[in-house]
Write a structure and sequence with these properties.
This protein is mainly α. The chain is built from 21 helices and four strands. Strands 1-2 form a two-stranded parallel sheet. The protein has a two-stranded antiparallel sheet with strand order 3-4. The longest helix is centred in the middle third of the chain and has 48 residues, at about 235-280.
Length: about 675
């Protein structure tokens, strides 16, 4: 039941306190770019982002405290500083799909390409997409704030936690040192792995004896791919944040893919298939390397496509389970839109939003930009461009309300933005096909149609991610006594700045991996093992398949049937299972190790019978440690990528050819010990 009881803020509406200041804005913008870059890195590698609210709050407090800043300045900085994460999420889930689909190619020489990925034309197109998505998200939130932020029936768990961090900081706490030390550790582990002081991965193949079928006399030959977790503080941090339950569900997807599907397919395809792959890759037939290559090829070309079909059904099932929540969110959005412009003459400081006319003009400008990009840049017909712009506005508004409502229940970290985006992409693609965009996948009309679908999906994805993040921050701001229009303006500026630099970060990561691949003998760039970009790969596959008519429907349908069977069996979180099938073996293994460490911490704390305050302290400290590890590796990864573009490779500096993987495992063990010990010691120090 809806509860309209008024908030009691930490700073009263009548209090005149510094809030939207130049120092608070500048710190927020710098944090937005840094945390956005970190999220772009980890999202491309692990397929998920981390909530930037906590590190933005801690770093902002530490810096503003030295400048005698107020709690409302800290709140403003946190809000502006975390918006880069949302822009990054939208960017990495969709923009690499242009590259993977061949629209923005490495060289731009293909006839179907809109330009090279690192060209100025691609930068302008991508930045326009991010600008429209980011600003639309801000404007829709300004429309919907009263309907959702003031609803006391929505717990907004992460908003409450962020507000408590600010309040605790007024007494001198905050845990800044844990975040910064963890960032340093993450950076050191990343550079040590690049220098080959230890091996970051391990792969082998366990071949089993050939088996003869009883009736047909056929021979089944093959075995199992075997490996260890990637030595990565970032992957460890991701698993540590999501916890043992979610990590183990994803790990079950790994077992399903590599323990069932790949071995069966290898046995059925037979030695001839493996030998042909080995010959193409210049490998010795029937060698361990040849079998590893065959396993990875089967996973890449068959199992991952099955996982895509499963993710589609899992996304639809997730939305179906939330149907009541979605309906309530949309109903509130419509009611709030009807009341737009009916503000009272006197509105308290803590209830003032952006001006309605500014909001509506911003939304209209976003729709016009979408039309112009589709028509003039992507080269669609007038009707298709009009449909694309209309669909974008309608879906972005609907799912901004949905995103805000979901964040109010489960928090921003669990907001299924990629699932919502997949739904929007499929709807857009089917509508464009309905309006005449179809063919064999090679014509310019098909190319422009795929580009339009990806463009709309990208705008929608950024808008939904920004909306969810903003609802979370506005609720935290309402608890602290922040001014909505000032926070909205700060987020708008942060979204614009992040949009201007985000594609440059993607270029650095993509080009750096390409150059490293050339030096080390693998095909780098988005879609490689180093930068799998799982959501973007999925978006590219769906858009090409639906619009271009090239969908591998047999494998997609197999995945859909598998998802239905899991749902019928009552399996929790089927989406995580298919993500476990889709992401590389070593990535999911490392995330699982992080989840296990978090599980050990939970058991350890439970046996010590801590009080609620101590448990919350341990939880906050663990989040800061994991966020620091992820951010540290991500920022060092960007630096390494920039050196790689310039032709400098850390992997060859020391001349180490055979680093030890056991040293890497020892590093993980030591890191795991401190991830349990530090939160526990911090909790004991809390009264």
């Amino acid at each position: 039941m809806e509860n309209n009881k008024k908030f009691v803020p930490f700073v009263s509406a009548e209090t005149n306190m510094a809030e939207f200041t130049l120092k608070a804005l500048l710190i927020g913008l710098i944090l937005s770019v840094i945390l956005g870059a970190a999220n772009a890195y980890i999202g491309l590698k692990a397929g998920m982002t981390i909530a930037a609210t906590y590190p933005a709050a801690v770093i902002g407090m530490a810096l503003l405290r030295m400048m005698k800043g107020t709690i409302l300045e800290e709140n403003f900085t946190r809000s502006a500083g975390s918006v880069g994460e949302s822009v990054a999420a939208g960017a990495i889930f969709t923009l690499p799909a242009f590259y993977i689909a061949g629209l923005w190619t490495a060289t731009g020489t293909e006839s179907t390409a809109l330009g090279a990925f690192s060209s100025m034309s691609s930068y302008i197109q991508a930045t326009l997409i991010l600008l429209v998505g980011g600003t639309m998200g801000v404007f829709f939130v300004a429309l919907l704030r009263r309907a959702l932020v003031q609803d006391q029936s929505l717990p907004f768990p992460e908003s409450v936690a962020a507000a408590e961090i600010h309040k605790a900081g007024q007494g001198g706490g905050g845990g800044t040192k844990y975040l910064f030390w963890a960032m340093l550790v993450g950076a050191v582990i990343k550079i040590a792995g690049e220098l080959k002081l230890f091996a970051t991965g391990f792969a082998s193949f366990l071949k089993v004896a050939p088996a003869t079928l009883t009736r047909s006399g056929g021979i089944l030959e093959g075995g199992f791919f075997a490996g260890g977790p990637t030595i990565s503080s970032a992957y460890l941090g991701v698993g540590y944040i999501i916890g043992p339950q979610k990590a183990s569900i994803s790990f079950s997807g790994l077992l399903l893919a590599w323990g069932l599907m790949v071995p069966i397919l290898l046995a059925i395809l037979g030695p001839g298939y493996m030998e042909s792959l080995a010959a193409a890759a210049n490998l010795v037939p029937d060698s361990t390397d040849a079998w590893i290559h065959a396993s990875r090829t089967v996973w890449q070309e068959i199992v991952r496509i099955i996982a895509i079909g499963g993710m589609l059904v899992a996304a639809a099932f997730t939305l179906f389970n939330m149907r009541n929540t979605l309906g309530q969110g949309l109903a509130r959005a419509v009611r709030d839109l009807k009341n737009l412009g009916k503000e009272a003459d006197h509105v308290e400081r803590t209830e003032k939003d952006m001006k309605a006319i500014f909001i509506l003009c911003g939304i209209a400008a976003g729709a016009l930009c979408t039309f112009l990009v589709s028509y003039f840049v992507f080269g669609t017909s007038f009707v298709v461009a009009l449909v694309a712009a209309t669909v974008m506005v309608v879906l972005a508004f609907m799912f901004a309300a949905v995103s805000g409502y979901l964040v109010g229940i489960v928090g921003s970290s669990n907001n299924p933005v990629s699932g919502l985006t997949m739904t929007a992409l499929v709807i857009t693609a089917l509508l464009l096909v309905l309006f005449g965009v179809r063919g064999d996948g090679t014509s310019s009309a098909i190319t422009s149609g795929i580009a339009a679908v990806l463009g709309v999906a990208a705008i929608f994805c950024v808008s939904s991610a920004v909306a969810g993040k903003m609802f979370q921050d506005l609720r935290a701001g309402s608890l602290l006594g922040g001014t909505p229009w000032k926070m909205q303006t700060g987020d708008l500026i942060g979204a614009v700045i992040s949009a201007l630099v985000m594609f440059g970060i993607l270029i650095i990561l993509n080009q750096g991996d390409i150059m490293k691949g050339v030096a080390e003998g693998y095909v780098g760039g988005f879609g490689s093992d180093a930068l799998p970009a799982p959501q973007a790969t999925l978006m590219a596959t769906l858009s090409q398949g639906i619009v271009g008519g090239t969908m591998t429907w047999i494998l997609i349908l197999v995945g859909m049937m598998l998802a239905v069977s899991l749902i019928v069996m009552g399996v929790k979180a089927p989406m995580l299972i298919f993500i476990g099938m889709f992401l590389p073996f070593a990535t999911i293994f490392a995330i699982m190790v992080g989840g296990l460490i978090k599980g050990i911490l939970t058991i350890y704390l439970g046996r010590k019978k801590l009080n609620d305050a101590q448990e919350q302290t341990a939880k906050n400290t663990s989040v800061l440690l994991a966020s620091g590890l992820i951010a540290g590796e991500a920022l060092m990864g960007l630096i390494i990528a920039m050196f790689a573009i310039g032709g400098t490779f850390f992997s060859t500096m020391l001349g180490i050819s055979k680093p030890s993987y056991f040293i890497g495992l020892a590093v993980l063990a030591v890191l795991g010990f401190f991830l349990v010990r530090i939160p526990y010691r911090k909790a004991l120090a809390t009264n």
